[in-house]
Amino acid sequence: MPDRDWWQTLWPDPKRVLADIGVVGGMQVIDLCCGDGYFTAPMAQLVADGTVCAVELSPEMIAAARAEAERAGVANVRFIQGDAMTLPELLPAAVDLVLIANTFHGAPDHTGLARAVRATLRPDGTFVVINWWPRPREETAVLGKPRGPCFELRFSPEQVAAWVEPAGFRLREVKEVGPYHYGAIFDVADGRD
Questions:
Q1: Which of 7, 37, 106, 111 is deepest in the core (most CB within 10 A)?
Q2: Dihedral, 184, 17, 15, 55 alpha carbons, nearest 10
Q3: Domain assignment of residue 63, yes or no
Q4: Residues of the domain holding 166
């Protein structure tokens, strides 16, 4: 997991990134595979009277995310240690938005993960995948070093859509969310196409 300087250089304003992808006050959201909580605390601030469920497999990362939320003074975060593929079992209540940032590429079954996400969303819900643009690592330097996953794990928005849409989603838009990342924003498909 990269350190804070790395994240801060890559995304100096995480709250703006979250607002750009549609996080607003009052929402019930999931920060899926939250890692050290870099987006968790700003997300909790944005949703204000809403709630954030930070889901992560690693107990060490859950502890780091919890510490970050405490440092930021947010109390509207629920931390859940568990496997993202079992998301409906971990969080049976429906939510407005699920965000997965920088980890979708590592899912063992991309469509299966999207199905798990779909099962936790409200009928008008949103699924956001923040991913690295498919560029060689040498072109994505952070603090003077090539960063991010290997090229083979950098998928285009079209490839991500090919995995996500069969799970009951429709790609609404793709947004630039940093120097090397895009946000693929999916709406729940209503089946009337």
A1: 37
A2: 30
A3: yes
A4: 4-188
Cβ within 8 Å of residue 148, ≥6 positions away: 132, 137, 140, 154, 180
Confidence bin at 81 (pLDDT 50/70/90): very high
CATH code of the domain covering residue 83: 3.40.50.150
Q: What is the pLDDT of residues 14-44, one digit of tens each?
A: 999 999 999 999 999 999 999 999 999 999 9
193: in domain = no
Distance in angstroms (rounded) separating the CA atoms of residues 113 and 57: 14
Range name among 49-53, 133-137, 148-152 with the lowest pLDDT average: 148-152
In a domain, 29, yes or no: yes
pTM of the full structure:
0.94
For the residues of the chain, what is the DSSP string, one character each? ---HHHHHHH-S-HHHHHHHTT--TT-EEEEET-TT-TTHHHHHHHHTTSEEEEEES-HHHHHHHHHHHHHHT---EEEEES-GGGHHHH--S-EEEEEEES-GGG-S-HHHHHHHHHTTEEEEEEEEEEEE-S--GGG-EETTEE-SS-GGG---HHHHHHHHGGGTEEEEEEEE-SSSEEEEEEEEP-S--
Examine residue 49 and state whether it is found in any structural domain, yes or no: yes
Number of domains the chain is built from: 1
